[in-house]
Specification:
- This protein has one domain (117-459): 3 Solenoid (Pectate Lyase C-like), CATH 2.160.20.
- It contains 2 helices and 52 strands.
- It is elongated.
- It starts with 6 loop residues before the first helix and ends with a strand.
């Protein structure tokens, strides 16, 4: 049998490839003399001007600057009078002597208004009689990254313009930690042990920020008489502040926020607020207090003085009030509760204001009534179990429909001119008290039973 071998052809191809490669590769020996660097220096990429003390250091021309040492001063630390500035503190500090006047500030920005922002990064400002960083220019845009403002006599930061800040802190200052009158976009910032509020911001967005042990509110959103868009807070924490955890006078949103151990309320909010997945816990003086037209969903209030207080037209869904010292839920007029739980509160579970509704709600093991209804309210498919007093207490013209009451002192007390239908009651000391109330026939079944009365109430 004849066989054909390809080895000579393969060997020839390898020789040709090696020859071509050696021709294209060039000489293997480096050129004579030292090898020059091919990378550019920082100054070639971006020209930077070094700065040194003592202060005050004045920056009057646009450009990029960096510190070569700490700046110490008896007056202002750094004064910026130009726009388009990038200032790298380079890990150093701007340090005041702690005495003087409120005009002695760490970094003062008084540049003319234009579109170019001022950027300050990587360092600290401390020990000034006035503010750590301050600007009264209303249209200024300031960017901060890893700036720490410590133990100044007035506000840590006071800015009349816009702020973008990342990984910054304001600690132990003599007034509010962060005061921003323009848009505030803050991420991973903290305000701790400031004499007044932690954050005082009116519009923008705060994400993953925390306020702890401040002398006023953790997060304060002012502006009741001003047309301001409000602010969005996400994953922010307020803990152990002297007053409120979160307070807002203008419509704002709170998502995934928590208020823990504050001296007054957890959330003290005006009209038009939106809250989702928030928690108020162990606040000494308060609770969730939300204004007219606000909405809450998937929020929890536990171990506070009160649970949840709502004003006119609020909507509360899938929320819980647990083990609060006094009531669970207390509403003003025309509120709507859906699928909410009040458990083991020190007074009543739900108090519904005139014209309010509750559906799919549960009130269990509360010291007072399960549900206390004002005039013209309607509850549907609700449960009251194990409450110390009455499961459901009606009022004039209330409707109680398809509810279950068990193990209360009294099951259901109807209101004058009200309606009780399709309910069931068991193991209450008195199941029904309906003398002045229109109601479906009360049926006491024995074993299996049927009824053609679609509005009958059951007692067993």
């Amino acid at each position: 049998m004849n066989q054909t071998y390809a080895y000579p052809t393969i060997f020839l191809s390898l020789i040709v490839a090696l020859v071509i490669s050696s021709v294209n590769a060039g000489p293997l020996n480096p050129p004579a003399g030292p090898v020059a660097p091919t990378q550019k220096t920082l100054n070639e990429v971006e020209a930077r001007t070094p700065l040194a003390g003592p202060g005050p250091v004045v920056i009057s021309e646009s450009g990029s600057y960096y510190l070569t040492e700490n700046i110490t001063t008896l007056t202002d630390g750094i004064v910026i009078t130009a726009s388009g500035i990038t200032l790298d503190l380079n890990g150093f500090s701007v340090i005041g002597d702690g005495v003087g006047s409120t005009g002695d500030n760490g970094i003062q920005i008084s540049n003319a208004l234009d579109a170019r922002p001022t950027k300050i990064i990587n360092g600290s400002v401390t020990g000034f009689f006035g503010s750590g960083i301050i600007s009264f220019v209303s249209g200024i845009r300031l960017v901060l990254d890893e700036i720490h403002i410590l133990e100044n006599g007035s506000s840590g930061l006071h800015l009349e313009g816009d702020l973008i800040a990342t990984r910054c802190s304001s600690i132990g200052n003599g007034s509010t930690g962060f005061v921003v009158r323009g848009d505030a976009i803050l991420t991973d910032c903290i305000a701790v042990a400031n004499t007044v509020d932690g954050f005082d911001c009116r519009s923008g967005a705060l994400t993953a920020c925390s306020a702890r042990n401040n002398g006023g509110d953790g997060f304060h959103i002012p502006g009741v008489f001003e047309l301001i868009a409000g602010i969005a807070l996400r994953d922010c924490i307020a803990s152990e502040n002297i007053d409120e955890g979160f307070s807002s006078l203008i419509p704002s949103s709170f998502v995934g926020c928590g208020a823990h151990g504050n001296g007054n309320g957890g959330f003290a909010l005006g009209a038009g607020q939106v809250l989702e997945n928030c928690v108020a816990e162990e606040n000494t003086g308060g609770w969730f207090n939300v204004g007219a037209g606000s909405s809450m969903s998937r929020c929890t209030s536990r171990l506070n003085l009160y649970g949840v207080n709502t004003s006119t037209g609020a909507t509360i869904e899938n929320c819980s009030a647990l083990s609060n010292d006094q009531y669970g839920f207390d509403s003003n007029t025309a509120a709507a509760f859906r699928n909410c739980v009040a458990h083991s509160n020190g007074d009543r579970g739900f108090t519904l204001g005139a014209g309010s509704t509750a559906s799919g709600c549960s009130s269990t093991s509360n010291t007072g009534n399960g549900f206390t209804l004002s005039s013209d309210t309607r509850i549907f498919n609700c449960t009251a179990d194990g409450n110390t007093l009455t499961g459901i207490v009606g009022s004039s013209d209330t409707t109680i429909d398809s509810c279950t009451v068990t193990d209360n002192q009294t099951g259901i007390i109807g209101g004058v001119g009200g309606l009780v239908i399709r309910c069931s009651a068991a193991a209450n000391t008195t199941n029904y008290s309906l003398a002045s109330t229109r109601h479906g026939t009360i049926i006491i079944p024995a074993g299996a039973f049927t009824t053609s009365n679609a509005f009958a109430n059951i007692e067993y």
